[in-house]
Amino acid sequence: HQTQLRVSASLVAQGIPDDEIVTLVMAATADAAGNHGRTWNWRREERALRAMIASAHTKFVKPVEKAVPVEQVAVNDREAEVVNLGAERKRRESG
């Protein structure tokens, strides 16, 4: 369980798709389980792994940030001046 948790979290953090993580980790788990794996509930094992992956997404993947209004984006002072003038013009035209 701890190995699955750490490996799946690491793969999530690297941006590997969930289904690829499941395929890789389930195969490694089956290899590690050997003959004991014959008695395991593999559907439950996959559900647990997918839950680990979902949890890792909430912990390690940054959510997409909100778009920043163009008025707040400027590379240098001159660009800021141009953007601010454009925003001011837009306010005057709409109001």
Low-confidence stretches: none
Class based on secondary structure composition and strand pairing: mainly alpha
Q: What's the overall geometry?
A: rod-shaped
Described by strand count, sense and barrel closure, the largest sheet is:
none
Helical fraction: 55-70%
Order of helices and strands: HHHH
Distance N to C terminus: 61 Å
- What's the total helix number? 4
Average the pLDDT over all residues and give the rounded result: 79
Tell how many strands the DSSP assignment holds. 0
Q: Could you tell me the strand content as a percent range? A: under 5%
Offer a quick outline of the entry.
With 95 residues, the chain is mainly α.
Topology:
Layout: H1 2-13, H2 18-33, H3 42-60, H4 77-94
Protein architecture, described:
- The protein is 68% helix and 0% strand.
- With 95 residues, the chain is mainly alpha-helical.
- α1 (2-13) runs antiparallel to α2, α1 crosses α3 (42-60) and α2 crosses α3.
- The longest helix is centred in the middle third of the chain and has 19 residues, at 42-60.
- It is rod-shaped.
Sum up the structure in keywords.
95 residues; mainly alpha
